[in-house]
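Email to the structure team, subject: SET domain-containing protein model.

Hi all, the expression group asked for a predicted structure before they design truncation constructs. Nothing fancy, just the tokens so they can compare against earlier work. One-line instruction: predict SET domain-containing protein, return tokens.
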Amino acid sequence: MASHEEAKLETFLQWLQANGVELRGCKIKYSDETKGFGIFSSIDTPDGVLLVVPLDLAITPMRVLQDPLLGPECRAMFEEGEVDDRFLMILFLTVERLRKDSLWKPYLDMLPTTFGNPLWFTDDELLELKGTSLYRATKLQKKTLVSLFEDKVKGLVEKLLSVVGDSKRANSVFWARALNIPFPHSYVFPKFQEDQDGCCSSLKNSAGVSDNHKPEVEVYAIKSNDKASTSTDTVWVEGLVPGIDFCNHDIKVAATWEVDGTGITTGVPLSMYLLSVERTLFQTEKEISISYGNKGNEELLYLYGFVIENNPDDYLMVHYPVEAIPNVPFPDAKGQLLEAQKAELRCLLPKSLLDRGFFPASIPNNGCSDKCMTDKISNFSWSGQRKMPSYLNKLVFPEEFLTALRTIAMKEDELFKVSSLLEELVSSQGERQPSDAEVRSAVWEACGDSGALQLLVDLLHKKIMDLEESCGLEDCDSETLEEPNSAISLEQHQRYENELHFDGSVLT
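Reply from the structure team: attached below.
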């Protein structure tokens, strides 16, 4: 690690100490060029508590609203509904990075300046994602960020600091490092005076930094003037927690993080701490990882800028675009039916679920006989006369998604029949709204699955075509096959091509 990076780390460690952070069984050091800095084990701790961070140090939307510089401007926009709490965080990171005398400078200097998520891809790199959900999400995110910067951020930052900020970097910092923190209710909504002196959170110079290790910049401690009570009520708030946010992700986690409201675990009330989950023999210098959640590679790349080889949480997303609904016949009526049925316009199919294509590995046996299954379908049908389809217990697609496709694919006479069935139900049982299950039954009775399955085939076919257009299967694969050292045989290639194309037979 270069001397400049070492100096930044030393300053940051002193800043953490000045703000009450306790590195009890770990240390922060450089990991590698892909991960940046990480947290590593140093000594064994009897209680497994590795790191303790006072919640006063967390950067949250409440802190932004209480900031002397940003608070008044942000509070007005927030109360008018112009911005959300995530915007407040991104704006705070943008402004604080530009403040030459920022009290957060030692922490902000440690944050990465470039990221691996698609927001930072070149145009050519982004084109490699074309045809995927990630490509569309990134294009939309770029457009949204440009609009957000021009409409909200630029003018406000120029007004406050007379400079233009980098909202793309702040956005990436937030999404890559934010945690969903369970704060005590009284900590999120403290009682404080309206004047500046009574503001809940303030920034004060630290008097506890040793002169023997004087950092290049002044180290400050962030304190709270108001003693928040340790209420049992919990409010989940997104925020950045300096120190804990240096934990990198791994499928096999080494630690979890918890909030200690009373101090009974750590001795530090209103704090967040890392707790070791290792049951094996203690190892020094081992990186301490946490889990960012069971996320597929598209989501990991979108949020954090990395992927995991053979990710067990990968999934295929199949969706019907909501922007296409206004173009279907009778969009208003179908929109009301979709809402009434609590239908889902997309489904996520885990990688493990697709080992045998779009069919489950085995038919689940919950002690339910064929007659039981038939009765279940008969009860789902309005009249009980519609026969149970042979594929019902074979498809992996969830019922909520098929419900949406049935509704979207309905023809005029089928829509009229649904309306008549629901009117008959309401008139026979008094004035009331039909339940979501009753609406689903009416839709099933009217149209079955013929239109839904055809629409599903079209969606899958479109998804495959989008991916083929992006990766150039026909051209690129032909060139590969002509190479003398190609490991792909013509037979293998033909089988691969056949597996990529769908027709109605796979769904019946």
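Residues 192-218, 224-231, 364-379, 472-508 have pLDDT under 50 and may be disordered. DSSP finds 18 helices and 14 strands in the chain. Ping us if the truncation boundaries need rechecking.
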